[in-house]
Amino acid sequence: MNHDQPKDRIHLTVHEGDRITPVLASRGDTLLSALRAKGFGITAPCGGNGTCGKCRVRIVGGPPLPPPDALEHRLLGAHAAEGERLACRIRLEGDLEIALPRHGTAVIVTDGWLPSAALEPLAVAEEIALPPPALGDQRPDDRRFFDETGCSVPPGLLRELPLRLRRDGFRIGYVYRSDNRDVIRFLAPGEAASVRMLGMAADIGTTTLAAYLLDLRTGQRLATASALNPQRTFGADVISRIEHAESRTEHLDELQRSVTAALGSLAGDLVREAGVSADDLVCLTLAGNTTMMHLLAGLPPGAISRAPFAPASCDALTVEARFLGIPEPVRPDALCVLMPSISGYVGADIVAGILATGLHESGDRNRILVDIGTNGEIVLASGDRMYACSTAAGPAFEGANIHCGMGGVTGAIDKVRLERNHDGTAVLWTAIGQDRPRGLCGSGIVDTMAMLLEAGVVDDTGAFADDPSALPPELAARVVEYERWKAFVLVPADEAAHRSPVLFTEKDVREIQNAKAAVRGGIERLMQKAGLRPDQVSELLIAGGFGSFLNIDSAFRIGLLPEALRGRTRPVGNTAGAGAMMALLDARLPVEALRWMDRVEYVELSADPAFMDLYIDAMMFPEA
Amino acid sequence: MNHDQPKDRIHLTVHEGDRITPVLASRGDTLLSALRAKGFGITAPCGGNGTCGKCRVRIVGGPPLPPPDALEHRLLGAHAAEGERLACRIRLEGDLEIALPRHGTAVIVTDGWLPSAALEPLAVAEEIALPPPALGDQRPDDRRFFDETGCSVPPGLLRELPLRLRRDGFRIGYVYRSDNRDVIRFLAPGEAASVRMLGMAADIGTTTLAAYLLDLRTGQRLATASALNPQRTFGADVISRIEHAESRTEHLDELQRSVTAALGSLAGDLVREAGVSADDLVCLTLAGNTTMMHLLAGLPPGAISRAPFAPASCDALTVEARFLGIPEPVRPDALCVLMPSISGYVGADIVAGILATGLHESGDRNRILVDIGTNGEIVLASGDRMYACSTAAGPAFEGANIHCGMGGVTGAIDKVRLERNHDGTAVLWTAIGQDRPRGLCGSGIVDTMAMLLEAGVVDDTGAFADDPSALPPELAARVVEYERWKAFVLVPADEAAHRSPVLFTEKDVREIQNAKAAVRGGIERLMQKAGLRPDQVSELLIAGGFGSFLNIDSAFRIGLLPEALRGRTRPVGNTAGAGAMMALLDARLPVEALRWMDRVEYVELSADPAFMDLYIDAMMFPEA
Questions:
Q1: What domains appear along chain B, each with residue ranges and CATH number?
Q2: Beta bridge partners of B436
């Protein structure tokens, strides 16, 4: 990244309270992007589009800037006269000295979605000089400490207190829980000011673990890391994990140890990448689907997989790392917050997603959040009510059960489109990496399906055209017979890896029909529950990795999403990770979640006749 | 104890609710003493003197008894006509069938002091049939349990819940903490009704441990056991234990392990004696002086021994047995309540003593509780205020620093008196056991001192008579010279063990003067603090083993206690053990103690000029 010429370098001087940080930036960058690139926590929920007015900074030195434009004037009001500017509107042309607002809110940057959270972390470091005992003040040490700090010393830390107080002249540092004011650990004098207070947020996916290291004092994200969930060796999906956990008592322990070991190792990666000490990692927030949360907590998940699907617990749980068995380098006394779940199939990942998208604070807007995986979890917020359901989409969108389906790795076709020009009709595709294509990942599958409909290769019932000769010849040539199924040759053998053609069969079409009908039926069912027509829905948010790569137009073309919501639909990235990060920065959020979760009506689809009707209706593809 | 002849045997049939227990008793016993001997919880705060009217039973069978006397009629009122009698007034002359009143209050029988306590133990067993989950009721197991029982399942027990519910058809037993409604353990169906809920109360003395096993459902005492405190090998008194604990880090652990091992072993003795299972031992209450409580909890006690004497903690602490390290047969999840202390030298044993004597509920009476050991702890209750102090009596009353002093064991002279008759003056004594006397225990020391004053051998300044020839010849002959000190020969060599005479020296007199001045000065100082004259004090209670054996007249004769309180002074036995038992039966008491303890003004005597004046005044012995 050393391509800046000296003349293009801008020197920024950033004041944050008493702290002054020199920052190198590039000419032409916005001040906002320069600050974010260096990890400064700066609020900008609009993503730097100059519409939210939140990325305020104060200019304290440097050559004069162009005056605020009309937009800045409108958003800043009287503050403009006080030297305040919007960081997103300032393009760097010369050195600049600025002051950031006093912390209190911070921003979390995740891929595609930028929620902001107040800085109220679960662990806070303080220091105090206690009045030493005297004959006229014989208060016991714990009482003296409590009287002066309002913090209680748990039995396990009581022993340390007298020794530290007398060694350090009754000056003592302490890290305490902001929710119940229990001391978590004691510190030497001076340490409270210098210790980095770090937190790790983790999204525990069935397949992938994503972890984020945050500075709890500034809200800065210091590092990210990800790993495959090692539990996958015990089964690819939730149900096979549950079966494994149930087959022998030790298996549950084994599954728990497997994920906690991975979390310990991710923590090691994060602190290494950020160049910080794992000793300063004081809390973790953990979100995943309900089964992942059960396995993490060592709770028997069996009942989740059998009607009536009642989990052992959906509660938020705050425990020490030693209780879960998260190993070094995570300290045994690090606090782990397991986010709450809504039901057996609407898990803590969705609760985190609701937090990240502010779905529970939608006001009078009607908003829908969809997270598509093996199960499609859907939440609809309408007024002060929320509805949630989980719909068995099956693994088709993840590439499983599709003849040439595969994960989103090298060799997977991720984009497909039809190009019609004066030369005729061409099928264009891109694959991940430089390799010859081996198959189709989720977004490629949806694109292929959309393309086949658009080209008339497949009709609205899902049948291949009876008479391929009516198709353009370039397409007709690609329709073949494959093991009693009709199939479309997306990539012929000589262009594909291992000289094995990439096919899309009539059976694959049936899988997609089932999968999309499940998701679409769920969306329709929740709108029906809430008494809403599609045009009354102001926003449809697509969460998760699949949502990020999905071509939204293709999703509408195959009828996965209701046509009426086109234009009001957008991907929001890994909202589970974003929500876990928010909960890390503001410990009140998981607790508040327990309250608003009571407003969520869980709609069990497995025995719902209305859903069955909608599901069957949604099996058809939209007509061209 | 098999000296009852068959004809002297009485068969009692005792109904307690639905339970019927056959009891063998002896002809001539009172019904009260027969019931108590078998461990029935029966209230009689007056000690069986027929004044409190509380030991009511209903006669349901057997030959007619002599009719109630006037006293019974007065105390029972209309209940006499309904077949009720006072157990203390019935002398057993034939077989008898009786019913005890429904429990609700229970009595704790301790040696000499009989407080009653409500039955509100910390651990309660219940059973519930939960509504099984259904598609319309998918509440998670922990929420379902909470909704139906109001009890929370701690993280460590969560794993068990789903397995038990599904194995046992959603019927589940549980033991929970009555204070915070947290589940302690789960039970199989039917077990909640059958399990014996047992508690152990222990008084952790510097020298002796006393433990009591109680039935938490009935309040019955099932067994008692005692043992020497094994910590004594690390030092006889509190100060030497503290020094040992401070000399190396491991020593504190060693001292903790030493007392927890003893508690485990006492629990084993108790359940063996009572023929019950240690698995049913669900909670323990533990009381001792502040240093013993620190060593039990593993807290550094060092600061207690150095001005300004601020302990690590005086708080009540409820922890699991595993936290303290109390070993098998005590279950690791048994709840241990460490009673709170008032200050470094007014410990949990005194708090328990206040509970047992109801000192904190003295109303408008002014009452004093004195516990004499190496330190004399004194508490004075006056109106809504209490004053407490600890006075360094030294170990003289325990036999230490006294030339022929010894503990209250075989060979110790425990009673001494002067008998003047027509034959002259004789010194009479009794010794513990059948052996020749070897020395003097505490009560014998006080008796000897009183006798020497009474006989004129020692004058009010503590000096031996200048001219022994003025004494009766029997006494004059006993005054000898011993290693530069004058001494009185209590037992000549030829009557004593090992042909070593039992002497009482002028130096012993000085020790007693110091010790009694410390206690007396403390009592006077608290009365002064409260603005009370001795005649305004309605009761002086002497707690502890020494108090039980002490000849109260001798205590007044030597001026240990203010003469004005003679007639209003009585021993109250092991109030620390009694208070711990009360706290076992009524878990609210230690919590309430934390509240009334705020009303206790601790008077630090070590830097108190007013105390020094009173102490010096109290050095003199009262004149004859």
A1: 6-102 (3.10.20.30), 123-194 (3.10.20.880), 362-393+512-617 (3.30.420.40), 397-506 (no CATH)
A2: none
